[in-house]
Amino acid sequence: ASARNGDMRREEREEEEEMGEEVLYVKVMTDEQMEILRRQIAVYATICEQLVEMHKTVSAQQDSLSGMWFGSLYCDPLLTSSSHKIAARQRWTPSPMQLQILENIFVEGNGTPSKEKIKEITTELTKHGHISETNVYNWLQNRRARSKRKQTSAAASNTESEAGIEIELPNDKKARPDAAFSHEKQPQRVDDPSFQDTEMNSLVHSLYPETTKLRAHM
Amino acid sequence: ASARNGDMRREEREEEEEMGEEVLYVKVMTDEQMEILRRQIAVYATICEQLVEMHKTVSAQQDSLSGMWFGSLYCDPLLTSSSHKIAARQRWTPSPMQLQILENIFVEGNGTPSKEKIKEITTELTKHGHISETNVYNWLQNRRARSKRKQTSAAASNTESEAGIEIELPNDKKARPDAAFSHEKQPQRVDDPSFQDTEMNSLVHSLYPETTKLRAHM
DNA sequence: CCTGTATGAATGAAAG
DNA sequence: CTTTCATTCATACAGG
């Protein structure tokens, strides 16, 4: 029972849903939307901070428990809430945390995924969830491949732009990003780390001091 | 396989400028930037969730504190912002015409859809509607996979009739280097194009039940 | 409105 | 490394 009437239908639907004047489907954010996003992120940040504060307060009175929490949060965060969680997915799924770290590693661009390194990374990531060296290896491999593919297709259709999409990754000593949103029409380098949000990193860091790697750019 | 069409976006944007009445300079995010943002939000979400869990645990023992807490945190950041939805990531829908053509191509069964071929097909299909190479690629891939699955399940039911055991739980484990035990619950990826609903709202809502308004405009 | 289903897309893993 | 496969995720629709 599938009505394949294509775009027309969808367009109508969307329009009726909300935006009246913006009929076009562009993957573009207006200033306003940017603002919304920024605010939403700010909300997260705020909530997290306050939760952390709260935790501190509470744990000050229950220190026996607090140690346990911080120690086990990432490895086994939800045991308490849902014991009916059986699940057991067959294929590994990186936790957001792991993803973030992997992404950073990728961006840092050591093009050399040495065995040694892999092992090291794996060890680090184990703190944030179940993972194996194979996972790390595969992830990096896939990431590389897909990034490359993207670049290729992008370059293909973007011939006239001499913009020198020097799409080779890493080593960007770009200024530290504060606010992070680019105003340029030209898309930035694909994996521009400058886009990453410092605020969050520091938040995460304050939560999980052992994850210094998150910010490690040197 | 995963490459999203980053360049396509740009083209669309220019289109917009052309036909646009006002110049409307918008800030553009590349897909990659969007993705990074999504992930960062996902990290926030995860942290928040876990903190919430923690809070529940704690407040179960100290309900006097928890009440105070819920009352004071929220500062109404999102209520005002509403109204504009970020253009959703839309998923391509083949027009009937395109579908027909694709079907034919599939039936012709050249099992190897070379890149060359894909490009060609895409060009052809563009005449019948908006489409990209990735779309074609995905479509064929999905078509193949699902066709195959159908056969498999058909065969399975066949076997079942003779064996009498129809337990076909997809529980079979592929050879995995690491023995799998139950994963931690992996919160789903926040992959919401609008950046505005589901995950975050429900998270916030769970934090601040009284702010139901948050969801009002969805 | 909410729930179920078809299907475009993303992605971990493996083959080539 | 590149390409392909298998599985999962998320969304567009249809039906209650």
UniProtKB/TrEMBL annotation, chains A, B:
Superkingdom of this protein's organism: Eukaryota
DNA-binding region extent: 87-151
Domain Homeobox: from-to ranges: 85-150
One GO cellular component, as annotated: nucleus
Keyword annotations from UniProtKB, A to Z: DNA-binding, Homeobox, Nucleus
Record's compositionally biased regions (Low complexity): 152-162
GO molecular function, one term: DNA binding
UniProt key word Iron: no
Disordered as annotated region, ranges: 1-20, 147-194
Localization terms from the record: Nucleus
Protein name, entry field: WUSCHEL-related homeobox 8
